[in-house]
Design goal:
422 residues; 12 helices; eight-stranded mixed sheet; 2 domains
Length: 422
């Protein structure tokens, strides 16, 4: 039986995989093919990456532009948190589509089905299957085909921490891999991302959680090895969605735009700066489109703005000037180490709704070297155990790789299958 299994250790940057920190993942390098130049999306945020991995497409095509976005609703520009459980259903009601491209769950629905277990934000979990073609299990709500809620006893009742990840992993192995056996199985661990937002990278607390995440990935790697030994043709993709950098300053982008005379007030809908961690997406209401050029010029002169992308440049980072998105900014980043010697620091855009951006802790979203450096290792047909692939790989390559393994078409995606030619 041909099967595909995807395991994501959320937020684990590639340079933190070592025999000392992550021994099981390090051993897996000898069992799989490692992609040395593997990159994520922009913004480098889990909800965006989940949609890109699920569809094989850049945000410009699947339509989920950020972890936080703005939507045009009844003529008004409204800031929204894409992590909310109902966001993609709300987006469908407002725009007509949850995502604009089919997901893996949709593509395999008639070919063995998909089951997703996720312990990150609900918005990121549901981005794998917002329209209910398979099964998605999450602590905020678990759904089967048609987005029908599962029975109470079937709900994924876990916490967002190491213990919750462990419980989810054990159930995933026993129930999904061993008994239900869908064509596509996805396990998305909440750690180490969760702890990295709370603690300094490289701190003892962080390293302890990193070791646990490594062990949880190892449980699945070992389970898949047993399936393969029993005769299943399994493609196993083990990786992360983005890395982290240390927050060394927080910028209130809305306040900066107001001070420059480019936004009327904190609550105004003429211009909305949607914080995405170490990046920000700036939306301009169509009635105020004449401000876009001045906003771009202003941002080019801001020392806190690392790279600025105007309407004609958004495609360079996989975005498009659609749905009032006008300008994107990757906040200033550097190689500066933190107190524990972990390289990579970035400014963060102040989030809305009172959410915290903790100085000295981890964050992501921009184009900094380390937040753009997740990892990917793949074992199975078309991949050489112990090999290192130097050619670039992207998150958008995962979906076509899975589809190629399952023998399903994948011509209408932005990514490419990663299997070696036979």
């Amino acid at each position: 039986m041909k099967r595909a299994v995807i395991v994501t250790t959320d937020g684990l940057r590639s340079d933190m995989i070592s025999a000392e920190l992550t021994p099981r993942l390090k051993r897996f390098e000898a069992e799989a093919e490692r992609f040395a130049d593997y990159r994520t999306m922009f913004p480098s945020c889990t909800r965006v990456v989940s949609a890109s991995l699920a569809t094989g497409c850049f945000p410009a095509r699947h339509g989920l532009q950020g972890n936080s976005v703005a939507l045009l609703e009844d003529g008004r520009l409204i800031a929204r948190d894409a992590g909310d459980p109902d966001f993609l259903q709300h987006k469908r009601r407002v725009t007509g589509r949850s995502l604009s491209m089919p997901t893996l769950a949709e593509r395999v629905s008639a070919h063995g089905g998909a089951i997703i277990f996720s312990n990150v934000s609900p918005g990121a979990a549901y981005a794998h299957d917002p329209d209910g073609y398979g099964h998605v299990y999450h602590r905020s709500g678990s759904f089967g085909p048609g987005r029908t809620p599962v029975a109470d006893g079937d709900h994924l009742d876990v916490t967002l921490d190491v213990a919750g990840d462990r419980r989810m992993t054990e159930r995933f192995i026993d129930e999904v891999l061993t008994r239900r056996r869908p064509a596509l199985s996805v396990l998305w661990l909440g750690e180490p991302d969760h702890i990295q937002h709370e603690m300094a990278l490289g701190s003892p607390a962080h390293l302890a959680v990193l070791a646990a995440a490594d062990a949880h990935a190892g449980l699945v790697i070992d389970a898949v090895a047993r399936l393969s030994a029993a005769g299943d043709d399994v493609l196993l993709c083990v990786g992360s969605d983005h890395g982290h950098q240390t927050v060394d300053g927080v910028i209130d982008v809305d306040a900066e735009l107001i001070a420059a005379g480019l936004k009327a007030s904190p609550a105004s809908g003429d211009v909305v700066a949607a914080s995405n961690g170490t990046s920000v997406l700036i939306y301009v209401h169509p009635d105020h489109a004449d401000r876009v050029s001045n906003i771009r010029t202003f941002l080019d002169g801001c020392g806190w703005a690392g790279r600025v992308f105007g309407p004609g440049e958004l495609m360079e980072v996989g975005q498009a000037p659609d749905a009032a998105l006008a300008v994107a900014v990757s906040m200033r980043a550097s190689e500066t180490p933190n107190a524990f010697g972990i390289l990579g620091s970035s400014l963060a855009a102040k989030p809305a709704q009172g959410k915290a951006d903790r100085l000295g802790c981890g964050q992501h979203g921009g184009l900094g070297r380390y937040e753009q450096s997740p990892f990917m290792m793949i074992s199975g047909a078309g991949f050489a155990a112990g090999a290192v692939r130097d050619a670039p790989g992207r998150v958008i390559d995962v979906a076509p790789t899975v589809l190629a393994h399952l023998g399903l078409p994948c011509a209408d995606v932005d990514g490419r299958p990663l299997q070696r030619p036979r």
